[in-house]
Amino acid sequence: MSGGAAAEPVSGTAPPAGWLARALDSDIWASFKASKVAMVAAVVTFILVTLAVFAPLISPQDPFDPAQLDLLNARLPPLWLPEGQWPFLLGTDDQGRDILSAILYGLRVSLAVGLLGVVFAATLGIAAGLVAGYAGGALDAVIMRIADVQLTFPAILIALLIDGMVKSVMGAQLTTTIILAVLVVSIGLSFWVQYARTVRGSVLVERNKDYVQAGRLIGLSSPTIMVRHVLPNVIGPVFAIATINVALAVITEATLSFLGSGMPDTQPSLGTLIRIGNRYLFSGEWWIAAFPGATLVILVLAINLLGDWLRDALNPRLQ
User: Which of 213, 289, 305, 310 is the most exposed place for a label (fewest CB within 10 A)?
Assistant: First the structure.
């Protein structure tokens, strides 16, 4: 008899890998690492989002607090110019607000409106696309004709129309929260068509596959089949659309605010700051509009580059 102990049998299956390990081993992560442009865009977006989230902790001033504003500090140039004063690194606006602080808080407003508007648009568009593609028939025709009609109107025109209607009805009762909600709904109703058409096209393919027929045979309801089984298989392209639409939503909000239909001067977004600075652009106070404008350009460019990369990464024809 051998003196050594017999080797124990090795377990038949390895433990499943965690979600992080699977993500790092995915084709999308490999595509991300291979794209320097996407990595730079992701870093810039992360920095801007982080600055917006922690604005109350890192900004020298709360630009929304009238008690911290002093009109004697109005329209001061950036710190590196002869008349610049500490702590106004990027200068001040016409109300004595620190431009850097206003940009950080304005980023929060712009990103909040953009993200919430895209979430609303995606929810509405995905629901409409699922119902239209799965049900078909008259319901599909009605939803798609509504989408076709809306496509004939520019998004900014729809947003202006909704914003004007709400303001004419509510008048002086409008608060900052209501204005923000109106912007979110306006942007959401402007962008839902892209999600609806994309999801509908994918559902038309998926609804005739065997797993859908099997779900019907075992008695699953149509909402259950659509949400639990069809939706996960058609959601991929939506992420790319949503990423690009965040940038479009931020631009739309900035345009509305620049035209005077967005956030008020007391709680400005980036678009509001640009509108305020535009009044003094030709009188020499260029920094009031230049720095918020540069921030808006950098934010939108970074998000757009991420959206372009994600669209290519999720395109099976490019794999």
Answer: 213
Question: Where is average pLDDT lowest: 3-7, 21-25, 93-97, 216-220?
Answer: 3-7
Domains observed in the chain: 106-318 (1.10.3720.10)
Alpha-carbon gap, residue 272 to 253, rounded angstroms: 9
How many Cα atoms are found within 13 Å in the side-chain-facing hemisphere of 288? Answer: 23
What is the spatial distance between Cα 41 and Cα 274, in angstroms, rounded to a whole number? 23
Closest to 92 in 3D by CA, of 68, 110, 58: 68
Q: Write the CA distances from 186 to 48, 63, 108, 112, 216, integer angstroms.
A: 25, 26, 18, 14, 38
Helix axes 176-206, 236-258, angle to 10 degrees: 150
Residue keyed to tokens 């509009």: 289
Question: Cis link prior to 264 (omega < 30° from 0)?
Answer: no
Please write the tens of the pLDDT for every residue from 236-290.
888 888 888 898 899 988 888 888 777 877 788 888 889 888 888 888 888 888 9
First to last CA, the chain: 58
User: Cα 318 to chain center, whole Å?
Assistant: 25
